[in-house]
């Protein structure tokens, strides 16, 4: 036998080799059977869930009185998916729809309103607004939104000063957007229209790092709490089984009375990652505006709720208000905090939760777009005992046109004092 030759294993060695091969074959067969069983079980569950209508039932269960209009707007094909893992969806250029008498139009710049050229005509100034559904103006006409009213006031001031300058309000607020998505809207669409002023309409519930997905087939917005990359989660939503698992996973994480404040929930505004993502997005928006010498103004809206909540010294939202104000102060941004107005002060000045100084001057609820709330207030105004009229448990806290008008009356002089609008 030469040095490179292997020794003869003999009969015993060959037997061990055969036993090893048989063991390996059995193991591979067992793994294949297990995988096959798992795949068949998954397919069976997928088919069963599709036949049972489980997803349709879940969607129907979420369609309460408050969400009806919002669902109609989504179903109208007003939005579309965009190829960005953060932004995810936007207004569909050219879309036009009506919901309960309000007309919603999306132009080629992915903003709400009439079409306009990318290049500014001579004598035109542009006020670009970024935000969520409150900036968008869910239940009011185009000319009743905050940005439209501010642009109109600026134009009137130009005329009063003998100027021919016209201000155009460009509304890039999108329902459901958090601050990171608003940053993407600015970068991808907003800068292209060459804004002269940027208005950030910040809502406390924008303190998030992960937002909604939009499904163009079902025309719905949905959240996904699974700890997976955004692209994979979007792909997996086509599976009813994955959706079934995710809903139960999310329900476990968001169990409790205030999931938006619970550290268990991935969408809690108190989670460090959500706060840091918000801080970074606001800082980046401010940096972009500074680099381009574009004035930036912030409307800071605490989570819209009953006026009694805003006047409660122990309101759970107050620490979030302080957190956001801290960011705006760090960035040196002129800001109007709506808290004083939400507490019933017509001048918008915050006199504390107990309303020291002038007594409550108006009822915040009069500006809610919720018909059930308005019906309740009408009964009170008539002097009728409202015992047979209950306030809704899930009110729509979006403002009506009058509410945005009152807000613009407070914001405009502050923007003017900051030298941002004429």
From TrEMBL:
GO molecular function: hydrolase activity, acting on ester bonds
InterPro entries: SGNH_hydro, SGNH_hydro_sf
Disordered as annotated region, ranges: 255-275
Domain of life of the native organism: Bacteria
Domain spans labelled SGNH hydrolase-type esterase: 129-303
Keywords: Membrane, Transmembrane, Transmembrane helix
TM stretches of this protein: 27-45
Protein name: SGNH hydrolase-type esterase domain-containing protein
């Amino acid at each position: 036998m030469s040095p490179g030759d292997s020794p003869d294993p003999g009969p015993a060695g060959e037997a061990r080799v055969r036993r090893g091969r048989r063991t390996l074959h059995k193991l591979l067969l067992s793994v294949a059977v297990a995988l096959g069983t798992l795949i068949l079980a998954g397919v069976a569950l997928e088919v069963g869930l599709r036949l049972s209508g489980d997803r349709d039932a879940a969607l129907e269960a979420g369609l309460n009185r408050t969400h009806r209009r919002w669902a109609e707007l989504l179903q109208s094909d007003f939005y579309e998916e965009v190829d960005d893992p953060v932004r995810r969806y936007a207004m569909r250029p050219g879309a036009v729809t009506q919901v309960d008498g309000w007309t919603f139009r999306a132009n080629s710049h992915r903003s709400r309103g009439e079409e306009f050229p990318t290049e500014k005509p001579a004598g035109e100034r542009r006020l670009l607004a970024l935000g969520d559904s409150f900036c968008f103006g869910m239940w009011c006409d185009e000319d009743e939104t905050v940005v439209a009213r501010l642009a109109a006031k600026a134009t009137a001031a130009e005329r009063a000063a003998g100027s021919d300058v016209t201000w155009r309000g460009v509304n890039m607020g999108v329902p459901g957007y958090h601050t990171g998505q608003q940053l993407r809207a600015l970068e991808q669409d907003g800068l292209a229209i060459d804004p002269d002023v940027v208005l950030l309409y910040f809502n406390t519930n924008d303190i998030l790092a992960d937002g909604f997905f939009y499904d163009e087939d079902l025309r719905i917005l949905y959240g996904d709490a699974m700890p997976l990359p955004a692209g994979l989660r979007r792909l997996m939503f086509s599976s009813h089984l994955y959706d079934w698992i995710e809903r139960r996973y999310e329900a476990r994480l968001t169990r409790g009375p205030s999931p938006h404040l619970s550290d268990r929930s991935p969408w809690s505004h108190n989670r460090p990652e959500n706060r840091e993502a918000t801080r970074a997005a606001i800082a980046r928006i401010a940096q972009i505006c500074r680099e381009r010498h574009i004035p930036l103004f912030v409307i800071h809206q605490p989570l819209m709720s009953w006026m009694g909540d805003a006047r409660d010294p122990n309101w759970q939202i107050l620490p979030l208000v302080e957190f956001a104000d801290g960011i705006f102060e760090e960035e040196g941004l002129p800001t109007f905090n709506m808290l004083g107005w939400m507490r019933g002060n017509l001048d918008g000045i915050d006199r504390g939760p107990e309303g020291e100084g002038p007594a409550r001057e108006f009822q915040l609820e009069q500006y809610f777009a919720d018909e059930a709330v308005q019906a309740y207030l009408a009964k009170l105004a008539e002097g009728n005992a409202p015992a047979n009229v209950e306030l809704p448990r899930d009110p729509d806290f979006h403002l009506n046109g009058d509410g945005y008008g009152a807000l613009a009356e407070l914001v405009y002089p502050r923007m003017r004092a900051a030298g941002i609008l004429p």
